[in-house]
Amino acid sequence: MEETREQGGDVLQAKIDHEKDTLAFMVGVYCRGKKHEGRAPAGPAPDGAGLCPSCQELVDYAFARIDACPHMETKTFCSACETHCYKPDMRQRVREAMAYAGPRMMFYDPKGAIRHLLSKRA
Known about the structure:
With 122 residues, the protein is mainly alpha-helical. The chain contains five helices and no strands. It has helices spanning 2-33, 53-67, 88-101, 105-108, 110-121. The model is unreliable at 1-6 (pLDDT under 50).
């Protein structure tokens, strides 16, 4: 029984890590595409490295909310969750970044974009 619980924890942690990676990736695409001031001169990279201070604040906030999510085991995406734990202004900023980066994901990570679309249908 203990082993099963441990494996479930590994699956949950993998889901959390994947959600964080996807969010950081998409905010990185958004930050670079919008040419935000204060970002790394060559970037930011799509993995979220070199974000401007505002986008870094958004990613840090979202990571904290993901870590504290009580519905992580059962939900698909924050936008589909019954409990909205983001402050309204941060929720709007995430929506804006996702709307910008979503269509562009195919150029940066085609496999990840397809996987993201398929998981949205589940």
